[in-house]
Automatic annotation (TrEMBL):
Principal EC category: hydrolase
Domain Adenosine deaminase: residue ranges: 13-339
The family this protein is said to belong to: Belongs to the metallo-dependent hydrolases superfamily. Adenosine and AMP deaminases family. Adenosine deaminase subfamily.
Reaction equations catalysed: 2'-deoxyadenosine + H2O + H(+) = 2'-deoxyinosine + NH4(+); adenosine + H2O + H(+) = inosine + NH4(+)
Binding site for Zn(2+): 18, 20, 204, 285
Gene source species: Paenibacillus glycanilyticus
Job description of the protein: Catalyzes the hydrolytic deamination of adenosine and 2-deoxyadenosine.
Active site: 207
Free-text comment on the cofactor: Binds 1 zinc ion per subunit.
Protein name: Adenosine deaminase
Amino acid sequence: MNQAQYEQIKLLPKIDLHVHLDGSVKPDTIRDLAKSQGKALPVASENDDLTPWMQIDESCTSLVEYLSKFNFVLPFMQTAESLERIAEEIVEQAAASNCLYVEVRFAPILHTLEGLSASDAIKHTIAGLRRGEQMFDVKARVIVICMRHDSIENNLEVIDAARDYYGKGVAAVDLAGDEAGFPPGLHREVFERASKYNLPITIHAGEAGGSNNVREAITELGAARIGHGVRITEDPSVMELVKSTRTPLEMCPVSNIQTKAVSGWDTYPIRRFMEEGILVTVNTDNMTVSGTTMNLEFEMLAEHCGFTLEELAQLTRNSAEAAFLSEEEKSELREAVQQALQKLGL
Ligand SMILES: O=c1[nH]cnc2c1ncn2[C@H]1C[C@H](O)[C@@H](CO)O1
Ligand SMILES: [Zn+2]
């Protein structure tokens, strides 16, 4: 890949359907929040870089280790102001990669340690995204996460709170956290309620757990999309299920390699999935924890998997199809993607 091709990749329109709020906080923002909230930071000098505390390195061996990075930021994300600022800045970061649309996910229950309710957390995250939409001309929605280690009772409450904001900033609900320790079936009742409310569902599955979790997420929890899903390679019948149900996969290449969901770029199954006719999307997962951006994800695919500009453009078209938007909004997004691609001669 030469310099001119990298420049072209930057210009491609993009869509990020899988990005976590708490995994994408800018290190300088944490420094500011620590100061304004009067909280200590574990660094000697005011100017020390916080990135090493927030970003995973090559030594990461598992999803559980990867998830430990979130403990650092959460204490600073317990107020209305912090959620609004961080949400707005995610839209700013998405704009820097030329994203037209972003679905930002977060677990409201993780932001209720200092008095906010789950509903307040959703309200303020939406407010921040709205500010970002205005400032950076990127469309943004929220996906509300239930945590796998959490109780059924709490997760039912989270689903109720999500329902109140559905169509008013919330686009869907999700299940995230330690997949190996907590299979999707544990939360069947939670997603039954989400289905009853007609909330669209995506589930993290087939990342740190086997392909059967993907089957369970689709057939028993009502998932309309799957977060990651890279491990469906383990079972041809699950590959077939994903294909026949046209269930989009929200793949996150850089993160998938860091968490060892796959062994490396040489075995990354994205090209295979596309060739098999699976609807594949590419996303960042956690911009700060993974040290990534949508630009970088696309560059990596070009470099390691030989993706052409046309193939990368197809990923954005796929994401527009997979977006949790109304048919009308989806048509607008499709049109915006098409126009941007036409300008590039694609
Ligand atoms: O890739 C992931 N898999 C499972 N859970 C994840 C991943 N990235 C972030 N999370 C968790 C940790 C966060 O605190 C939580 C809410 O965003 O979601
Ligand atoms: Zn994720």
